Amino acid sequence: MDTDRMASPQSSRMASPQSSRMASPQSSRMASPQSSRMASPQSSRMASPQSSRMASPQSSRMASPQSSRMASPQSSRIASRQSSRMASPQSSRMASPQSSRMASPQSSRMASPQSSRHSSSVSSSPMSRMHSLQVDSVQRWMEDLRHMTEVECMCVLQAKAIGVEEDAQGELIVATRDHMARDNLQTLLRRALVVSTELGKMFQRLEKGRWQRVHSTAVRANCHVRSLVHEYSAARNTPSEMQKYEKSLLEKCMELTTITEKCLHTEDEFFLKSMREAINEILTDVSDSFSHMIDMALANEIQILIRKIESSDSVYNIGSDISNLLSLTQDGPQLCRIIAKEGAVVALFKICRQDCFSDLYAHALRAVASICCVEEGINQLEKVDGILCLADILTDENRAESARAEAAAVVAQITSPHHTSTQHLGSFLESMEDIVTALIKLCGSASCGEVFLLASAALANITFFDSMACEILLQLNAIHILLQACKDRQRVDTPYSKDQVVTILANLSVLEQSAPEILQEKGVERLLQLLGEKPSSSSPSEGAACERVQQKAAVTLARLSRDPDIAQTAIQLQAVPRLIELCRSPAERNNSDSVLVACLAALRRLAAGCPDSIEATDHQQLIKPRLVDSFLLCSNMEESFV
């Protein structure tokens, strides 16, 4: 039976769902609560999920020189002898995964059910006993198959290559340069996920004492690990230190398979209990060793990719390698840490300092922003004076808008409040005035919503950690620029952008001199509009962004209401009824407690300046009690549908 031809049609069809391209950068930027690629507290450019890139075991490109040898001469001879008279050319092409499994070493010793029935019809009476034996063997094999079918599938079907060309030789050998490094790394990640999943299953089944499943999972994990190690070693010259880990890991996997097999042949509870502890210890050791080996392999691949970026003079090749690097940053913070430690930030800023690569500035800075979602990336940026480079790009109005927008994204990332370390802000403060000036100008001249979003997100983060930034913004007429932008749907077109604007206004409202300017620019009307912000879709991230807009609008209104003119204007614009509605109606605030607290605080501030603006009933429930009592009263309210 030709196992290569048999596996290809099935595997090619199985790969398509998992290998579909991921969400576009634009959509990923808007996925997080603070907008995707802006570095707000919850944001980074990382949409995550490792899992989105991981193909299922059936769709992984698991080809190796060994896989071509999986169909043994014995199984070929038996398959041809048993089915040569029955199989037509059509049936040979339409072989299912089940038939491929029957060419495994186990099934090579027995006839298939179809061939048994065929032989019984032509057999004579002396052959009846042989027929019954064959049936018994098949039944026994079918019982074992329940536990071992995945191993059979792995050995015969999954080990076949799924490539562009039918004669592709290896999993880690890809024909085109553009995708080679990315495919190598993504293949490692997919295979690592498969092994990690099997090891996780072992922990669960070991806990439940399902020894048959424990052993079959150990066999599968052992097969996956050996396949990964051998194929990677064949495609790359692995470092000597990594080779030691590989050898040790293979020995531990074999030990795990051996010790789990012993538990199949006994029901002694005392023995099984002692074995459970030993297996758990070995399994933990295997998991740790495997994780360390994968990190070393990933680091090795990333080093190769970074060396290509540093050594190439071709804009096309460098751009392709940066794209590969950027795609890898989407696989989670752990991979970003490895990328940062291997010097990717240094290599990317070298690109951004050469005029001959000016067309690559935006692309390189986008990768830098993704890497800087982890502290290691920010530390690398600090070491190469990356902040000075960002300031130069931002302040140069002759630069392309896309490059300045991506520089703003990096600023937003490194100033994000969710970073625990602020040591990198020392050099940032030296250039802060130039950066803030450039960012507010970018907000005023932005040609699209994405550029405005990135620039405003950077400004919002900067206003959190230094009051001097707020003073600079007031001097630069930032309130006028931001409120005018809110009228332009081409720039402020999503709740994420409005979230950044109202964050800046909330931080500016701390300064007393901001109140007259907000009043002059009709900022109170804008705040009341933001109190009515509602999501346009069922997206959880958009709903969360609307909650933040409502909360910060109420906070801003409460702070500004210290000014009697602001308070009077808010009351005249019917701010009180809207705030009461948000307090009493959970649906209006999307059941958000933070919005409730902010609205109660704003109501109390307005009531302090204008007591007559609130009716007695509302005053009795929302103003007179302690804040916590009013909060409990409103949070326990249920909507009336009468």
How would you describe what is shown here?
InterPro entries: Armadillo, Insc_C, INSC_LBD, Inscuteable. With about 650 residues, the chain is mostly helical. Helix content is about 70%, strand content about 0%. The chain contains 33 helices and no strands. The radius of gyration is 32 Å and the shape is flat.
Keywords:
mainly alpha, 33 helices, 69% helix, disordered N terminus
What's the short story on this structure?
It contains 33 helices and no strands.
- The portion of residues forming beta strands comes to under 5%
For the terminal residues, how far apart are their CA atoms?
72 Å
Mean pLDDT figure? 76
List low-pLDDT spans: 1-134, 151-178
Radius of gyration: 32 Å
What is the strand tally? 0
Globular, elongated, flat, extended or rod-shaped: what is the shape?
flat
Number of helices: 33
Would you tell me the structural class of the helices and strands? mainly alpha
Q: Helicity, in percent?
A: 55-70%
Q: Major beta sheet, specifics?
A: none
